[in-house]
Amino acid sequence: MRPSPSRLLNILVPIKRAVDYAVKIRVNPQQTGIDTNVKHSMNPFDEIAVEEAVRLRDRLKTEVKQIKTVSIGPPKSLDVLRQALAMGADSAIHVEVPESSPAPEPLAVAKALQAIIAREKEPVDMVILGKQAIDDDSGVTGQMLAGLLGWSQATFASKVEVDVSKGEVTVTREIDGGGEEIRCKLPVIITTDLRLNEPRYASLPNIMKAKKKPVEKLNAEALGVDFTPQLKTLKISEPPKRVGGGKVTSVQELVAKLKEAGITAV
Length: 266
Description:
single chain; 266 residues; alpha/beta; nine-stranded mixed β-sheet; 11 strands; ETF_b; transport; ET-Flavoprotein_bsu_CS; electron transport; electron transfer activity
């Protein structure tokens, strides 16, 4: 069922705590996944989503009622929620997952977000989230959520314009070879691309204010969602290391080397 858009927009921004983009990824000794005992931060595409929500409020002024952010993850996910609050979000929801549990899969995350939207007192008009997380690169959560809700969707957005009076959103999206402009009815799911904006740095006063903003804590049971993985990773290994090259002094020597390697001309 599609709720009618309210006169004032309520925006939900899902964010994820992921391994920092500057960290060199390594496989853990058990070869069951990557080494997560490294620096983490907000997924960069989600950071763009938070920034876009705040910019929409700056442009639309009083037509945006609230920006709420949500993260599904271990206790340390509170750090990225506080960052989003410092950037300008009004409140947050933390769906806590035990530290030792595997990260919820995209479909489970989409179902959890669907449950959160259903329980909100104020109807959600817009969900803005990153097009993908840089840890698993699945890039499907937004599309799955739109399918579960039966809402309009605009993926890989590089520009977002909202006409609240008409209940419409015009989105320019990245496609192969250029851009595409589409018009969607509210409520809508939007996933963000890199060229949409450049996220702001939170100021110290806003960081201090973020500590006082409300954060609601939930769990999978409260949402009626099962986070048990449907996929099992058998083994993860690093790619073979590249070996150094060699120098040759003539074409004849190059041909001989190629023949030794079993490479022949077609």
